[in-house]
């Protein structure tokens, strides 16, 4: 994954008895991925420290450097951080933006500010939204807010569902795209209608736009027009732009001023943040213009995978969405995650090609899912390259499945 989720939770898997084994397995995976000559995306976890530092230095030395390397480092968010905030506000067409060390903090501050302004602690959000799935109920336990659910279907809520909520709410939070449902987006008219439905309920609208950068191709709209639908927007700098870390909250000047005060209270007023700010500026210059090409090529990759799975006679498989809405999508196969993980590592070790990384089983045992990211390195892959890599991967899956069956028998 380009956002680093493949390796982010691995420390939790290392208990007192299996920690050494898991650390060795992780080291093997990273070595295989790092040594690959062909990959659809380079994940941040597989980059060595010296390589990352060299990349930042190269960005500073380029003729089109994102910031003056002779400038001073920031102190509590001035200088380069202020330049990043200005760039984000301009790109989104918002009055102002504030840099945050994490997206979770930016989201919580936004919701807290809106709760105070609307007088309502109720947030309408999807149960698969990042706010619910990946922030440890921070909106509830830290900010004292609570949620209502317009829908539990694995898609964004509709205008009718928002109008039909049976109690008042102060904020509608929409994740664009809805990552845990498969990086799915509504159609443009559906999004406009959903926002209008929230306005009819006297609610404000907040976009969880961690991956908003790559939504322009699907909507056929530029970033300012998309962001203009919302009262506030959060964006990430590392999920699609290849940054080190960090996020921004954009909106009206008055909201951003208040958000800065809460950022300090939440511990987000860091002494220096220039490496993260520099990497974010570099990502805005280097990756943002290329994201539409990644989205277009993701559709080529997805179609080639479907073709390969069908030709190989895989009993059940799914690429979701069939036509990706962004440059990321889900792949489902009817094998245990451990088998697919091992097949992927062997493919990388034996052919120096990475197709898939980590798999998990979010549903029935033996049915695994992975998230695929298509980035700059994928643009060299033709549809035939994808099907050939998929065939080689499935061959290793079959070998492992046969061995496993004999062993269990």
Could you explain how this protein is built, in words?
This protein has 409 residues and is of the alpha/beta class. It has 2 domains: 5-55 and 289-408, Aspartate Aminotransferase, domain 1 (Alpha-Beta Complex); 66-286, Type I PLP-dependent aspartate aminotransferase-like (Major domain) (Aspartate Aminotransferase, domain 2, 3-Layer(aba) Sandwich). The protein has 16 helices and 12 strands. The chain has helices at 5-8, 19-34, 49-61, 80-92, 103-118, 130-133, 138-141, 159-163, 188-200, 216-219, 223-227, 253-265, 274-286, 291-311, 337-351, 383-408; strands spanning 38-39, 96-100, 122-124, 146-148, 171-175, 204-209, 232-236, 247-251, 318-320, 328-333, 353-354, 368-373. A 7-stranded mixed beta sheet has the order 2-8-7-6-5-3-4, with helices on both faces. A 3-stranded antiparallel beta sheet has the order 9-10-12, covered by helices on one side. Strand 5, helix 9 and strand 6 form a beta-alpha-beta unit. Helix 2 (19-34) crosses helix 15.
Offer a concise description of the structure:
By secondary structure, this protein is α/β, with parallel strands linked by helices. The chain has 16 helices and 12 strands. It has helices at residues 5-8, 19-34, 49-61, 80-92, 103-118, 130-133, 138-141, 159-163, 188-200, 216-219, 223-227, 253-265, 274-286, 291-311, 337-351, 383-408, and strands spanning 38-39, 96-100, 122-124, 146-148, 171-175, 204-209, 232-236, 247-251, 318-320, 328-333, 353-354, 368-373.
């Amino acid at each position: 994954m380009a956002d680093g989720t493949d390796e982010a939770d691995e420390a939790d898997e290392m208990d007192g008895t299996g920690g050494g084994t898991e650390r060795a397995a992780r080291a093997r995976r990273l070595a295989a991925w790092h040594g690959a000559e062909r990959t659809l995306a380079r994940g941040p976890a597989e980059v060595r420290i010296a390589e990352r530092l060299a990349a930042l230095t190269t960005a500073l030395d380029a003729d089109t450097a994102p910031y003056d390397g002779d400038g001073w480092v920031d102190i509590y968010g001035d200088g380069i951080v202020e330049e990043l905030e200005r760039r984000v506000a301009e790109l989104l067409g918002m009055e102002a933006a504030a840099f945050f060390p994490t997206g979770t903090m930016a989201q919580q501050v936004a919701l807290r500010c809106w709760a105070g302004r609307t007088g309502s602690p109720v947030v309408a959000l999807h149960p698969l939204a990042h706010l619910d799935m990946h922030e440890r109920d921070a909106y509830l336990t830290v900010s004292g807010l609570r949620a209502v659910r317009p829908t539990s279907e694995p898609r964004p809520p509709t205008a009718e569902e928002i109008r039909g909520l049976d109690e008042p709410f102060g904020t509608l939070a929409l994740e664009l795209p809805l990552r845990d449902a498969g990086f799915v987006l509504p159609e443009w008219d559906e999004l406009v209608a959903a926002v209008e439905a929230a306005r009819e309920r006297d609610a404000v609208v907040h976009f969880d736009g961690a991956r908003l950068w790559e939504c322009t191709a699907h909507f056929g709209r530029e970033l300012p027009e998309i962001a203009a639908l919302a009262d506030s927007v959060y964006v990430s700098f590392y999920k699609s732009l290849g940054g080190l870390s960090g996020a921004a909250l954009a909106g009206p000047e008055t909201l951003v001023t208040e958000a800065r005060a809460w950022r300090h209270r939440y511990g987000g007023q860091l002494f220096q943040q220039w490496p993260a700010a520099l990497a974010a500026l570099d990502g805005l210059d280097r990756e943002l213009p290329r994201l539409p090409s990644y989205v277009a090529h993701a559709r080529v990759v997805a179609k080639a995978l479907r073709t390969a799975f069908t030709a190989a006679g895989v009993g059940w498989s799914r690429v979701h969405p069939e036509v990706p809405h962004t440059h990321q999508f889900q792949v489902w196969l009817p094998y245990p995650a451990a088998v697919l993980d091992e097949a992927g590592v062997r493919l990388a070790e034996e052919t120096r090609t990475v197709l898939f990384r980590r798999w998990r089983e979010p549903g029935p045992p033996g049915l695994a899912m992975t998230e695929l990211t298509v980035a700059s390195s994928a643009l060299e892959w033709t549809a035939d390259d994808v099907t050939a890599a998929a065939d080689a991967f499935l061959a290793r899956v079959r070998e492992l499945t046969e061995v496993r069956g004999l062993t269990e028998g």
